[in-house]
Amino acid sequence: MKKLLSLAFAAALILGVFSGCKSNKIVIGASPTPHAEILREAAKILEKEGYEIEIKEFSDYVQPNLALDSKDLTANYFQHLPYLEDFNEENGTDLVSAGAIHYEPFGLYPGKAKSLDAIGNGATIAIPNDTTNEARALLLLEAEGFIKLKADAGLKATVNDITENPKKLVVKELEAAQLVRSLPDVEAAVINGNFALQGGLNAGQDALATEDAESLGGSTFGNIIAVRKGDEDSELIKALVDALKSDEVKTFIEEKYKGAVVPLF
After folding, report:
1. Which tens digit of pLDDT belongs to each residue from 166-216?
2. Which helix (H) or strand (E) is 37 found in, with range?
3. Alpha carbons 41 and 33: distance in angstroms, whole number
4. What Å distances lie between residue 77 and 5, 9, 147, 150, CA to CA?
5. How does DSSP assign 39-82, residue by residue?
6. Are 96 and 261 in contact (CB under 8 A)?
7. What pTM was computed for the model?
8. Which residues contact 49 (CB under 8 A, 6 or more apart)?
9. Alpha-carbon dihedral angle through residues 172, 177, 66, 240, given to the nearest 10 degrees
10. In 3D, which of 93, 94, 92, 99 has the Cα closest to residue 77?
11. Full DSSP string of 83-127
12. Residue 111 φ then ψ, to 5°
């Protein structure tokens, strides 16, 4: 009997140890660039504090939220809050922000046209086709004088809200991940920061025009750590956000991305 009790106690102790290890593991989904790169820098800090971080990379904007909702991830890091709110509304999920980490300026990148002046009558400009990023792209085109939008369109703007298009531009809506590959076929494209970086482009160096940080888009679209509602104040998430907002990570972002990614802390 004593032997059985001893074995039971040992088994419970072992399970407790493994359970404790598991509770210190953070499984986070991220876009490869720049999010996963930034996370690998933050992981150095987390590991010193006794946490284990597993980074799962995603190439699209849908699967990381579905994986988070189904509890396959602890958190994800790839999106801004307006996109998350739209996703919740469309998919019945209840995901929230645990903190904004950085901002990626949208850029208008050259395709066939190598300057703003070279974008002539009837030119084709590609933009993201998801709701919030499409609006952001259209606001950049408006800021550069190519189009005018309905006064109240704001961050819900679509091509249907274009009221003036003096050059009769063809605004081509594409999946965000396809925009870099579209450049040889269009005069220019407005590209999300992470997909531009993945394609070897830098908003601060390669874009014909970039989003102003004080614009509606620039002031709204900080990239966030998303979690299931109720997890935002958990020990794991607080540790993750603190590591991402550390001086070491800030220096890494500023030195590596040179204005294409801007820390918000």
Report:
1. 999 999 999 999 999 999 999 999 999 889 999 999 998 999 999 887 788
2. helix 37-48
3. 13
4. 46, 40, 32, 32
5. HHHHHHHHHHTT-EEEEEE-SSSSHHHHHHHTTS-SEEEEEEHH
6. no
7. 0.73
8. 239, 243
9. -130
10. 99
11. HHHHHHHHHT--EEEEEEEEE---EEEESS--SSTT--TT-EEEE
12. -110, -110
- The rounded distance, in Å, linking the Cα atoms of 73 and 51 is 15
* Backbone dihedral angles phi then psi of residue 53, each to the nearest 5 degrees: -120, 130
Residue 191: count other Cβ atoms within 10 Å of its Cβ. Answer: 30
**CA atoms of 179 and 177, how far apart (whole Å):** 6
Rounded distance between C-alpha atoms, residue 122 and residue 100, angstroms: 39
Residue 151 DSSP label: T
Question: In the numeric block, which tokens belong to residue 54?
Answer: 């597993």
Q: pLDDT band at residue 22, thresholds of 50, 70 and 90? A: low
Amino acid at 229: K
Strand partners of residue 76: 29, 226
pLDDT surpassing 60 at residue 222: yes
Report residue 185 as tokens.
């076929």
Tally the residues of the chain.
265
Exposed (0-12), middle (13-18) or buried (19+): which is 32, by Cβ within 10 Å? middle
- The tokens for 223 are 């990239």
Q: What is the C-alpha separation between 110 and 140, in angstroms, rounded?
A: 14
CA distance 126 to 165: 15
